[in-house]
Amino acid sequence: MTATSERPRRAEIAALVDHTLLKPEATADDVAALVAEARDLGVLAVCVSPSALPLRDTGDLVVATVCGFPSGKHTSEVKAAEAARAVRDGADEVDMVIDVGAARAGAWEAVRADVAAVREAVPSPTVLKVIIEAAALDDDAVVGACRAAEAAGADLVKTSTGFHPSGGATEHAVRLMAETVGGRLGVKASGGIRTAEQAAAMVAAGATRLGLSSSAAVLDGTPA
Fold first, then answer.
1. Catalytic residue among 18, 129, 155, 158
2. What are the sequence ranges of the domains in the chain?
3. Is 158 among the catalytic positions?
4. Residue 180 and residue 146: Cα distance in Å, rounded?
5. pLDDT tens-digit profile of 121-143?
6. DSSP code string of the chain
7. Which residues of 60-96 are buried (b: 16+ CB within 10 A; e: fewer)?
8. What is the per-residue pLDDT for 4?
9. Catalytic residue among 18, 95, 99, 155
10. Could you confirm whether domain 15-220 is CATH 3.20.20.70?
11. 95 has catalytic annotation
């Protein structure tokens, strides 16, 4: 996907973007600026820390938040309570982090039960995305984590928190995740996507959502 004519257009990319601010040092003013920028850019959603909720002046933006973030080492009960509180505070979508160690160990029933606890706490129409931290897993574990998330009722699987030292989204991981869920779930690529070329490559690999903190730079490099 090198020719400009083959890249997704700006509006097509914007419609997939969760404009994201999850830095622990973010202030209320930073969050307000994120929301204003998201509305100017015409993206789909904003994704913020649960303590930033409720948001103001969101217009038509979807509001997403995280739970069990970024380690995933919280108990399922804590994750479920955090997710339920976030929905009460106005979140439309929740991006939860699995216990990555359980996935590395192949403890798939534990992973499934963890996701299921959050799903029960925030039933549809709340959208549940499951962060598997793909860069920390081998291919078999990526497949297993996606299958466990699907079995527990997730709506999307997501590559990364963007905070793990192993790295963020890769085309390989996105493609493997998309092949595993087979269109039954969405796939969110997140972590380290900073250019239009990277965003287009993730979409070509099968991403149906993009978690971006550099949304303006990505969209500015995308054909109109």
1. 158
2. 15-220
3. yes
4. 7
5. 999 999 999 999 999 999 999 99
6. --SGGGSPPHHHHHTTEEEEE--TT--HHHHHHHHHHHHHHT-SEEEE-GGGPSPSS-TT-EEEEEESTTT--S-HHHHHHHHHHHHHTT-SEEEEEP-HHHHHTT-HHHHHHHHHHHHHHS-TTSEEEEE--GGGS-HHHHHHHHHHHHHTT-SEEE---S--TT-S--HHHHHHHHHHHTTSSEEEEESS--SHHHHHHHHHHT-SEEEES-HHHHHHTS--
7. ebbbbbbbbbbebebebeebbbbbbbbbeeebbbbbb
8. 44
9. 95
10. yes
11. yes
Note whether 115 and 152 are within 8 A (CB).
yes
CA–chain centroid gap for 105, Å, is: 23
Q: pLDDT tens digits for 35-80?
A: 999 999 999 999 999 999 999 999 999 999 999 999 999 999 999 9
Contacts of 25 (CB under 8 A, 6+ apart): none
Question: Is there a catalytic annotation at residue 73?
Answer: no
Q: Residue 101, Cα to own-chain centre: how many angstroms? A: 19
Q: Given CA atoms 199, 185, 140, 69 in this order, what sign does their dihedral have?
A: positive
Catalytic residue (choose from 79, 129, 155, 188): 188
Q: Could you tell me the pLDDT band of residue 224, with boundaries at 50, 70 and 90?
A: confident
